[in-house]
Specification:
This protein is of the alpha+beta class. The chain is built from 3 helices and 8 strands.
């Protein structure tokens, strides 16, 4: 299984801000191209990450044969027959966000295989594990997994809410400066056109 929430989230957020700023320059080519407020909200919505929502109540379980490898105190590796319990849980939202570490985190983040639309958790036990022990451990791991993943997603949502506010403020300034620059260019060009007209009139007189 992959280690979830391990890459710095701030790097992804900075990348999104830069892409949004570039989009402003690509979109606004003339002062009257688009309504400022409309463009601002479109870009904020487009570049704000969509934190995944995990539907724990819709998860499904499967069991299959597995070889369990253990190591003796002497360092000898042995293989024993066992069972792998696979828990597939659907989610909605941006799959890539499971890779990023929010500003708050623990030293032991959860693990899962991230598939499109599903988180996959695997738990292995040797065949000699008593049934009651299996049930107890699987319930324990399940509840711990839900707690850990949900906590990380809450931390990520807090970061995203702060990011959205920052993105809105920065883009508002970028849009304003972009339109001011285009208006300045327009005034310069108009003044040059006026000068040419004045020169032509003077020449004819």
């Amino acid at each position: 299984m992959e280690l979830l929430f391990s890459r710095p989230f701030y790097e992804e957020l900075e990348r999104r801000i830069q892409k949004a700023k570039n989009q402003v320059h690509d979109t606004i080519q003339a002062p009257s191209d688009i309504d400022e407020e409309t463009l601002l909200q479109q870009l904020v919505d487009r570049y704000t990450p969509k934190v995944p929502v995990v539907h724990w109540d819709k998860g499904t379980w499967q069991a299959r044969d597995a070889d369990i490898y253990t190591q003796t105190p002497g360092g000898v590796q042995t293989k024993m027959p066992g069972t792998e319990y696979v828990w597939r849980v659907p989610y909605e939202g941006d799959q890539n966000l499971f890779a990023f570490q929010p500003s708050s985190y623990t030293l032991n983040p959860p693990k899962a295989k991230v598939e499109k639309g599903f988180l996959v958790f695997r738990y292995q036990f040797v065949v000699t594990t008593p049934e009651d022990e299996l049930k107890r451990l699987l319930q324990q791991y399940k509840q711990a997994t839900i707690k850990d993943v949900d906590q990380y997603l809450r931390w990520m949502q807090e970061d995203v809410e702060k990011f959205r506010e920052r993105l809105q403020n920065e883009l508002s300034n970028v849009i304003r400066r972009r339109k001011e620059e285009l208006l300045r260019r327009q005034r310069v060009l108009e003044s040059l056109s006026e000068d040419e007209g004045t020169n032509a009139t003077t020449s004819r007189s």
